[in-house]
Amino acid sequence: MERQAAAFKALGHPARLRMVRALGGGEQCVCALRDVVGLDMSTVSRHLGVLRSAGIVEGEKRGTWMYYRLRLPCVIGFLQCLELQLSPDSERGGDHAGLDG
């Protein structure tokens, strides 16, 4: 349960969610992820460290750059499910049936 809670906590920031979504399309250089989120390199590296510690991504250094990929590709399906179910257009959006009891 602790590792699952850590994964949810790691996903709890918009910049980290954007990076995870980008990695859903395949491996990315840290420089590309910096462009995705529009933050400075040190902030991007910190966010990636959080995702790595939670076991969501893994990285590999090649030359002077780090390349990241999803370690948990199932996260993409979960995020797509959330987007679909929580969208304002969804007939189920906002419907919390089954969550109260």
Automatic annotation (TrEMBL):
One of its GO terms (molecular function) is DNA binding. It holds the Pfam family HTH_5. The keyword Amino-acid biosynthesis does not apply. InterPro entries: ArsR-like_HTH, HTH_ArsR_DNA-bd_dom, HTH_MetalResp_TranReg, WH-like_DNA-bd_sf, WH_DNA-bd_sf. Keywords: DNA-binding, Transcription, Transcription regulation. Residues 1-90 form the HTH arsR-type domain. The keyword Ribonucleoprotein does not apply. This is Transcriptional regulator, ArsR family. It comes from Paucidesulfovibrio gracilis DSM 16080.
